[in-house]
Amino acid sequence: MSELFKIGGTKIEPTKIICLGRNYLDHIKETNAPIPTEPVFFVKTPNTLITDNQPIIYPKILYESQENNRVDHEVELAFIMFQTGKNIAARFAFDYIQGYTIFLDMTARNMQISDRNIKLPWYRSKNFDTFGPIGPEIIPCSDIEDPHNLNIQLKVNGELRQKSNTKHMLFKIPEILEYISKFVTLKRGDIIATGTPSGIKPIVPGDIIEASIEKIGKIIHEVILEET
Ligand code: MG
Question: In the chain, at which end, N or C, are there fewer CB atoms within 10 A of the end residue's CB?
Fold first, then answer.
């Protein structure tokens, strides 16, 4: 199942959004997670995608909950698949990539932690509608010489919350693609997000989130409370 979606001037039809977890050492430390020996990945679904300054909707079910009232931002470098592939060798990885963009892996943090503690998947904490802002456009591979040397940052209401560089990624893009495609056929238009650096913090309705990556641009999204 796929849905047509437009990022900047480019139409894509993602069948899935695959996200790396635990891919920056400083973020692994702040979450007290073990350092992975192989890439850790999970899936987000196309209902999460928004772009072009559309608001992030803070779910009422979280807002009104005692235990689950926390939603965090995670800024990530993402890439878009150019062609379908399975068992992709790392050395050919860039032949499979259309380009790069900015992705926000919004996360219902307390729900994620409590689900994880009772050995449930991360699915529901990651897949609320609008929990995947993306954009502002897809920058072709040819315009970015080294995707592993880009400054990446996120501000909330003008305050700097996350600041790093993609060189700190534990698993680099060719390795990530080789690993994921051992298990999953990746389709043209699929989105792969490469993990977040440290500085994850909660957001609240009314916040303005501004995420940027060098050579790609900036996305700005307001957080609003879900209406009933
Ligand atoms: Mg993430």
Answer: C
31 CA distance to ligand 1 middle (Å): 12
Domain boundaries, the chain: 5-225
How much is the pLDDT for 1?
53
- With the CA atoms of 107, 227, 191 and 104 taken in that order, what torsion angle do they form, in degrees rounded to the nearest 10? -50
Binned at pLDDT 50, 70 and 90, residue 163 comes out as very high
Confidence of residue 4 (pLDDT cuts 50, 70, 90): confident
Q: How far apart are CA 112 and CA 69, in angstroms?
A: 11
Question: 5-225 in CATH: which number?
Answer: 3.90.850.10
Return the DSSP state at 67: S
| pTM exceeds 0.90, yes or no | yes
CA of 113 to the centre of ligand 1 (A): 14
Beta bridge partners of 57: 224
**How far, in Å, is the centroid of ligand 1 from the Cα of 53?**
20
Rounded distance from Cα 20 to ligand 1 centre (Å): 6
- What is the Å distance from ligand 1's center to 65 Cα? 23
113 in Cβ contact with 82 (< 8 Å): no
